[in-house]
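1st attempt posting a full record on here, be nice pls
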Amino acid sequence: MSELLSRRLALLGAPAHLSLLVQGRHGIERETLRVNRDGTLALTEHPVALGSALTHERITTDYAEALLEFVTPTSHLPAQTLEHLDNVHRYVYGKLDGELLWSPSMPCPLPDEADIPIGYYGTSLIGRLKHVYRKGLALRYGKTMQCIAGIHYNFSVSEDLWALLRTEENGEQDAQAFQSERYISLIRNFRRYSWLLMYLFGASPALDKNFLRGNSHALETFDADTLYLPYATSLRMSDLGYQSHAQKGLTPCYNDLDSYLGSLHKAVSTPYPPYVEAGTKRDGEWIQLNTNIIQIENEYYSSIRPKRVARSGERPIQALRSRGIQYIEVRCIDIDPFLPSGIDLDEARFLDTFLLYCALNESPLLQDGDCAACSDNFLSVVEQGRKPDLQLRRRGESIAMTDWANELMDKLKPVAELLDRAEGTDGHRQSLSKQRAKVADPELTPSARVLAEMRQQGESFTAFSLRQSEAHADYFRGRPLAAGPQAEFEAMARESIEQQVETERQDEGDFDTFVAAYQASILSIAT
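the predicted structure (as tokens):
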């Protein structure tokens, strides 16, 4: 254990400070495709019974119209967050008419690209902007990619905890700057070690063969309908997932917030020749918001993002620049097809342990070839993480992935113990033990279990996924919500529809002017 980490854990372990560890916030965003009972993509509109995808706080859509996204409120304890997620599933399953929620991250068999509906958000100016943004994504990356699902895990440390560390270590630094600096340090360590999360929780080693649309690939044939890689952990996070030639040189430096925001600002304000050639309109219809490297900040694809809740009309870059980092969003988590909600408490507790370790441990600046090594290690594990004696790169030297993983498990142990003391449980240590067992035996990982189940049952990826989806549907439908929570969800659905109607009624001006003003808002930000 580093001296810095040891000192910080001792400080936080003092009776007067221990409660700070349970005052952070957790939130989960879970995506899932709506599919028909035969496992094909649902081509229906977003169900009215779920409310408005534009204005509902808990139930929306992401890219494709069929890609639901469930958003939990934030809670101090991950168990509370998972309870919220469970309730959303139970409500939605009470409203779906003959449809299922697809269990894994990689999509079901898809229709032709032209037949995949893009998310629609009504006729308001902001609703049309969200739709055109998704049209731009379809133009740039294809609609097939807009059907991939994942889990985003939002995590924050108590601001009082940061204030305590600031007082002890750098009392003269501005509080906002200190907090942002600590979160950037967390992100650097996450980049160093997130390959471990892909090994432990990657759950997409196979996919339906039509996902590739006949394009060249290096995958192997599992059966007539399924492609896979024998040692892969997460094809979702591999080169087969969201990729962008325009973003190849974008990977921002996480050595400070300003350089990150500078990279992002450049991307949203710099034209990219192929997009310029396509233009923003075709036959008078908008096809993308602009011709820049990315249309808006959210188009930058990364495994983790610094975040700040934006005010009405405020761009994400503006929020971060003016008020600093508030929390981080982990975006590389696959949906576990064996779990009804796609994630469970053991996984959440390990993520908390891992992220707190990244936040509290020393975090040298990334320089020379560090960024490339981080990316290479991550890609190696997503493509061949269960390969015997897989070697990664650490500080310019080769190291066996399992050796490095076991070293990290040892370093995570005191963090897990401290979290258990704060919560009065042994859940973090138990989770750590379960993850350590996966390092010892790759067959315990979700990715290995998926392939083993498919082999045992003689199933294609689609058949396995449909069977899991049906089992999860039975699980949620067999546990209908109590009257109180049900009424709350019903009210949220009604109110969201009323809010969308009111937004559309109050709109003034034309869409072209609205888009121009939206673009001007980013160009006006000083870098």
